[in-house]
Amino acid sequence: MTPSPAHRRAPSQYTLASACVLLAALLAGPAVAANIEKLVMPGRVTEGHADFENDCGACHDAETDEARPLLCTACHEGIGADRTGGTGFHGRFPAARESDCTACHTEHEGRDADIVGLDGGLFDHAFTDFPLVGAHEALTCSGCHAADASPREAPAECGVCHRADDPHEGQLGGACADCHNQADWLVAVFDHAGTGYALTGGHRDVACGDCHQRNRFDAASRRCVTCHAVDDVHDGSRGDECSSCHTTDGWNATGFDHATMTGFALADGHAGLECADCHRQPDHKDTFAGGCVACHAGDDVHQGRLGTDCAGCHAPDSWPAARFDHDTTGFALEGAHAAQNCTACHKTGVSQAPDAECSSCHVPDDVHDGQLAGDCSACHGQADWADPIRFDHDLADFPLLGMHAAVACAGCHTDSTFRGAPTDCADCHRDDDPHAGQLGEACGACHSSNSWAATAFDHDAVTRFVLDGAHEPLPCTACHADPAADAAAVSPDCGSCHRPDDVHDGQFGTNCGGCHSTRSFGDITGLNAP
Fold it and tell me: Residue 390 and residue 377: Cα distance in Å, rounded?
């Protein structure tokens, strides 16, 4: 129910006579007016305001004679702060926050007048900063509010009222609501994880008093052995932190991280072992000198030849499941090598490494009869002998240029030795030589490897007959009619080619160049004409 101001008697009204007296006093001057105010005061103020009774201006506007709310809150600062900040009854209850103070609180009704008019039976505590819920709803006002104090001065901290009920004797402070609700002390909602020690597993069902003796909550030990020393089957040999191996779900539910704590992960075949299968001593402090062979010496088919670290090759799930990284030997198993059994190369056991040269295993496969040395990988891949062959002929004495690059290996190498293949042009191209060998066997002196027709012969440098003038664009056959017969036998005399053109009928010899230039017969350069 929302609060409402109590009904009060209507304040005394000024009589007509009083009004006349007051008017006369105002006309007479301030001093007389002040005395007259006392004479016409509607009644004595309440005991709390008695000190201001002779100072009307402390509460009333001198011009309008009306009470001013700002003057009220100038003295009642807490209520003013509530109205401004929306706290407390005067800040939460709309009528109290928005109305003039005199709407609820009237004065001049005598020293003993109750100008608050609070009715505890009707007051709605929800409009305060402390709503009444749970067991607080059944309390009387006097249970929290002292008779000689303002209602707003009632404490809000649990410990102020419940100090006598505190079984913790103030150890946990006064904020009881952090753990308890307002309905029942015994219904605790404390989150133990907030202490840094979460209650999990079997700890969840333990009563507070089982760990916190005599309601001491500020010094409970977190060491497992404090509570579980009598449960320690190791008799203290494994230390006092049971949680390093066991979980709170039960002693048999071990949470020991063997990989982290020992550096030895229990995986695959090791995962199903009981602790006692390896640890013969009750305190589990066995020393496993020698590594794997400490347990598996009887399983070592290598009889110690490969050392003691079985895990270097074998997986823990099975002995045959070897996982040796052959790359660590400097000889990576790729291509067809990856599918080979260890014994295919290690004829006498893996303790003795075979020669890394291809020929140590592939002599029977060598079609070159050893003439190309032992490094088969220089030409062949490891996937297949024939595919791919990656020999770089440019690194040989005979780089493959032009049309040679398209010739199959067998075009020049007639057997599988690949040694002794001819390098002179005539060795392969004798049947293609139109000169019948007259110009020697170095075809490359004139011809390019791109094409027979692409000649590079420098007639000016190699012969004594410079091709200039009209000779320069002539094809070879213009002078060398028979490539085989005329290749090196054509005479440099002009007459050997130009006898039919000689208008002098041979009278001036065969050296036409004595008078004529190579540009044209009509270009006479050697005759001094008159």
Answer: 9
The two beta strands, 447-448 and 314-315, are unpaired
Distance CA(116)–CA(90), nearest Å, equals 12
Per-residue DSSP letter, 12: P
With both helix axes pointing from N to C terminus, report the angle between 30-39 and 16-28 in degrees, rounded to the nearest 10.
160
Six-digit token string for 51: 């000190």
pLDDT digits (tens, 9 = 90+) for 82-112: 998 999 999 899 988 888 888 888 888 889 9
Q: pLDDT by residue (tens digit) across 164-203?
A: 888 887 878 778 888 888 888 877 788 888 888 888 888 8
Q: CB within 8 A of 182, min separation 6: which ones?
A: 133, 134, 135, 136
| Burial class, 443, CB count within 10 angstroms (exposed 0-12 / middle 13-18 / buried 19+) | buried
Q: Are 185 and 165 in contact (CB under 8 A)?
A: yes
- Condensed to tens digits (0 to 9), the pLDDT of residues 197-249 reads 888 888 888 888 888 877 777 777 888 888 888 888 777 877 788 877 888 88
Distances (CA, A) of 326 to 4, 218, 490: 94, 61, 72
pTM > 0.85: no
Which own/partner pairs from 150-153 qualify as long-range (CB within 8 Å, at least 24 positions apart)? 151/118, 152/78, 152/79, 152/88, 152/89
DSSP tag of 480: -
Q: How far apart are CA 376 and CA 358, in angstroms?
A: 6
The Cα angle at residue 110 between residues 106 and 114, in degrees rounded to 5: 55
- Sign of the alpha-carbon dihedral angle for 297, 300, 306, 310: negative
